Amino acid sequence: MTPKTEQKVYVGIGMDFETGGLDCRECACTQIALQAVRFDTWQVFDHCQAYIAPYGKADAGLPRRKVLRTRHEQAKEAGVVPMKYEQTALDYSAITMEMLRTQGVDMKTAAGEIIAFAKRSALSKGNQCKPILIGQNVTFDIGFLQQLMNYAGLVAEFEKTFAGTKDYYGNFQPHYIDTLTVGRLAFAADPEVTSYKLELIASRLGVELNDAHDAAADVTATLDILGIYTSRLRHAGGEAITIQAKEKTRKHFKI
């Protein structure tokens, strides 16, 4: 009798960061949201989100130029240098420094919980079943995820936990699905579509997006959009996958 082959369960982790600016080398992470989804049923089976308390710069192994410095400059560098929290970015996400100080979790705690979340999201064994990252313009978010892992000293765990490969330079590159690119594939031939912003594509596909630029709301909309694309690939009518029910109130809870 031929042994029955175990059905592999592939999963993705929808991810979105709110940040203190655009540069992942200089600006802080302010909010993180994650949702784990099965690729076979498109069921979201786990989620978490958190504000991240203000933190300072750390030596993350980034290349540095050799510059002669005075003793005064060296002493100044020895202190904690805060990350950037640009007011424009804070206003964009409706996050205040007071919210981060009173509701935020420690940066290293947040990084550790991201690893723990990804580990429990893997539903089958094997490298091919490690979680794949999903996001809208997700390479932006990956830069901030790499920052957190570097600052928390969890790069090795990050590489073991998420699907990915080493590039030519020996750097780990996580595997991902970017709904921005998939959106261009879907609508590039449509002259009426001139922008692929999350809220515009959501509106076009009939996906409700409440509280845009809140990390959790953006992840929910991103997975719903990708679910519709997935349905269209699997079924001519595109009706097989149910999108998530949403509430209009913003909810925040610590990891």
UniProtKB/TrEMBL annotation:
<feature type="domain" description="Exonuclease">
    <location>
        <begin position="131"/>
        <end position="226"/>
    </location>
</feature>
<dbReference type="InterPro" id="IPR036397">
    <property type="entry name" value="RNaseH_sf"/>
</dbReference>
<keyword id="KW-0269">Exonuclease</keyword>
<keyword id="KW-0540">Nuclease</keyword>
<protein>
    <submittedName>
        <fullName>3'-5' exonuclease</fullName>
    </submittedName>
</protein>
<dbReference type="GO" id="GO:0004527">
    <property type="term" value="F:exonuclease activity"/>
</dbReference>
<dbReference type="GO" id="GO:0003676">
    <property type="term" value="F:nucleic acid binding"/>
</dbReference>
<dbReference type="Pfam" id="PF00929">
    <property type="entry name" value="RNase_T"/>
</dbReference>
<dbReference type="InterPro" id="IPR012337">
    <property type="entry name" value="RNaseH-like_sf"/>
</dbReference>
<dbReference type="InterPro" id="IPR013520">
    <property type="entry name" value="Ribonucl_H"/>
</dbReference>
<keyword id="KW-0378">Hydrolase</keyword>
<dbReference type="GO" id="GO:0006259">
    <property type="term" value="P:DNA metabolic process"/>
</dbReference>
